[in-house]
Design goal:
about 50% helix, about 10% strand, inorganic pyrophosphatase (n-terminal core), 7-stranded parallel beta sheet, globular, about 325 residues, single chain, alpha/beta
Amino acid sequence: MSADTDLMAAIDERLDKLVTLDIGGRGVEHLYVAARARQGRSLIGAAADALLAVPDGSTIFVTTGSVSRAWISTEIGENDGPAGAAIIIRALAIAKKVHCVLLAEETLLPGMRAILTSAGLTVLPYDQAAIACKDGSLAVVSMLPFTTSDEEALAAATSMLEQYKPKLFFSTERVGRAKDGVYYSMRAIDYGMGRARIDLLFDEASRQGIRTVAVGDGGNEIGMGAITQAVNDHVKFGQTIAAVSPADVLVTAACSNWGCNAIAAAIAARRKDPRLMNTPELERQLLNRGVDIGLINSVQNVVDANVDGMHLDTHVALVEMLCAVIKPALA
């Protein structure tokens, strides 16, 4: 190994350890052990390498967002996921002129637009964004809705993959269906109503040989089908809520936003480019922007900037630590 390779391997290990610190006590450390054994290497490093392997200028599908309490309103979303997805999209747009297409429920897209804009991205229709990606004149992203109908999902998935030809599909904090076909919350409540069937699109992409990367923190997200037994054994209600969709690379984290932030940090370290990483200031801005658009802290059932029940300052401090971990590579 070269000195650079040794340093990067050490940084990847530190990033893994940092984002799997199970502050919320959900059992994610057990999920990490299973995912790590399956991957055979650092999860953060594997995800960063998969994203960087995509050819410059390619199209990537990205999904996040969780319709929450849709029996009240399908416009209510959770605050874990959107900020992390925005950081990944931003890193790829700057580093590789990648054209990311964010997929979510139509009802959540206005809020997603606000988060993406706060991350420094210009949200454009697909054709306009393609021009900007090609000439590198803007860091851009497009958004598309996906059907909420089980009956329409497979045909819609086939059509969308044929039309946009993504090179990779990235998912973070996106609930997937369990073995009984239900989309469960962490409390084993049916959250399927009003939910876009994006996990079926994810699965179809995988069947077509499109590489998949997923981030999750609870066991009910897309990608967790890769470690079903660990979810069953170590997560409360795991045998009920475990999502069935696997991913080629699964990143487990104590908070899904943390996983995304760590992947972006690993990308920045590999490219020796600090522009690609999140910063404490940007993290605070994104989570406060979530308050502006009404995203909820789903653990405490209120609109605030505390994600998964952990205070805003904890998330900002985590980003500060990620920056510190990769600093030797940037030097």
